[in-house]
Every structure is written in C-alpha cells, then in structure tokens.
Amino acid sequence: MKFAVVGAGVIGATHARLITSLPGEAELVAIVDVEADRAAALTSEYGGEPMTELEKACARADIDAVSICLPSGMHADAAITALMAGKHVIVEKPIDVTLAAADRLIDAEQQTGLTVAVISQRRFQHAPAFVHQAVADGRLGRITAGIAESAFWRSQEYYDSGGWRGTVALDGGGALMNQGIHVVDLLLWMLGEPVEVQAYSDRLAHERIDVEDTVAATVRFRSGAIGSIVAMTSAYPGRPVRLSVYGDRGSAVIEQDDLVAFDTADGEPADQATGVRPVEAGEPAAEASVSGSVADAHRDQYVDFIEAVRDGRPPSVGTRDARRALEVVLGVYESARTGGPVQLTGRQ
User: Fold this and answer.
1) Residues near 96 by Cβ (< 8 Å), separated by ≥ 6?
2) pTM here?
C-alpha cells in the first residue's frame, strides 16, 4: 500500500518511520507539509517526494492511502479531502476537536465506502488485548469499575514550541484531549457505552495556554459500571500510564506496557496473561499478533489498517470508536465548565 504522510512534524516523522518499517506491506511515496523545507527534511530521512499541497498529493494515482498527522483541529477536513479523492485514511488521535467535525468525517466515510482508521495503538498491546478478551469472556464477572490514569509531565517549553499547542481551536484541549485520550479509549473498550460524566479541571502548572493541564472525571456507563479518569501534564517527572478494571469475579491492572496484576475468583494464575506472541520482524501480516511495546503496537495498527483495506473489513479502531472517546473528552470539558453532570448521547 502506497502512503502519503500529511504533516511533517514530530508525529509525521513517527508515521513515516512506521511506514518504512513495513517493507513489502507499505511504501512511503510522499510527505506533505505547507513548509517545503520541513517536508524535504523528512523525505531526506525516510524517502518519498516532498510536497506542499494536499490536493495535489491526493490527485496522484500512485498514492493509495493518506496518513493525517496535522494539528488536531485540522484532522477531519484533511481526511475528508483525501476520501473525496478516493484515498483510504489513517487519522492520528484525536479524530478532531469537535463532534461536528467528527460527524462530517463519518459521513464522508459512509459516502465513499473507503476505509478510515483512527490511531489508538494501545489496543494492540499484549496487556490491553488480554484484559479486553478476559472481560468479553466473563472471566472478571460483572464489571463494576475502571480507573484510567495518565500522569504525564510536559514542560512550558513543550507548549511554547508550537503556536497551535495549548490552543482550543487547534489542540482542542490539554492533558485529556492529547495525552489522556489513549487511556480513555481503553477504558471505553473495557467498560462499554458511557452515558454521563462529571468532572473538574484546571491549569495549575503552566502559563500561556488556553487548556487544562490537570483533570479528573467520573463516568457512568450504561451497564451501571463507574469509571474514573485522571489526566495530567502537571505531574513531574511523569508516571506510567495505568488502567485498572474491576469486576465481581476478578480484576486486572495494566501499568504502561505490562499486566502487573490479574486475579480471578477461580484462581487463574496471572502468568497466563503473558502468552500473547508479539509480531516478529518480517512475519506475514496474516500471522501478526498484538505486541508488547507502544512502538510495536503502533506498527501493528498499520498492519491492521492495511489488512482491513485488503479484506474489505472495518479496521479494529474506526471512526465511531474515536468519536465516542471524543464525546467523553468534550463532555468532561463541558462538565468542568458548568459544574454539573453532562449526558452522553452518542451519534444519532
């Protein structure tokens, strides 16, 4: 599959590296950025042709798919441009920063019948995949609660390094929208459909940004389960991402890349949770399995996307998954502003 990467920033470089790590599966054809020197610098490292116009890249017959690596508030419009030109699309998280934009993208996806995946690579790691299957199999019993924690540190220089960082218009939010949304997606993957949120947020450790660096929220799920979300870029020096899932017959705790606790009422040993085999370099995609590290999992999501296009199936993480995570994040922000609970309705 021949790719164009749109956006030559830090995450664009990550996607370029991912594509070139899949010889025989993917090829990097072009890197697009409005700043020609940035596009040229990235192509000099990873290959492909530097370009400055998305429309011209999408008009090329030798490009099958486009990876959107722009500021968050530009994701949907760029993805729609690619879809309307007949290209499949991978969108970096979040899907966009408003539900209206997400819905425009979903409408374009349905209209064109093309494949759109949204990055949420942690679903492809050993531990989350194992726990999700354990939940689905009922091994934890009725799920009663989940706790999602992203205690990161981002310096003031991080926010000052790009004019769009820390802005509502293009960043869409702070610690939760950008750093915490991965573990929010995992919490929803484990606990199901969210129906209500109540939250508090503030900017406590940074200046010159419009968004939060500290947020805490409670989520009520349709099943009756209760979730807790804490996301920060104000926790020096930063701690591992942590997800806990609790049920009336068992519990599981994931810390960063590892399953650190797994207990069930039937006494299943925790070491059985480590039996998922990682992808080996050069292994055929059809034989690939979820991986341990975030970097490997990111690559696995690309493999899943390529296979989804080839097989005519939905990708493992699609636009509706991403919209649901975005609705929770925006609901948290609304609750923090108003001081009251916010009902979540899903896409109608």
Assistant:
1) 72, 73, 75, 76, 102, 105, 172, 326
2) 0.91
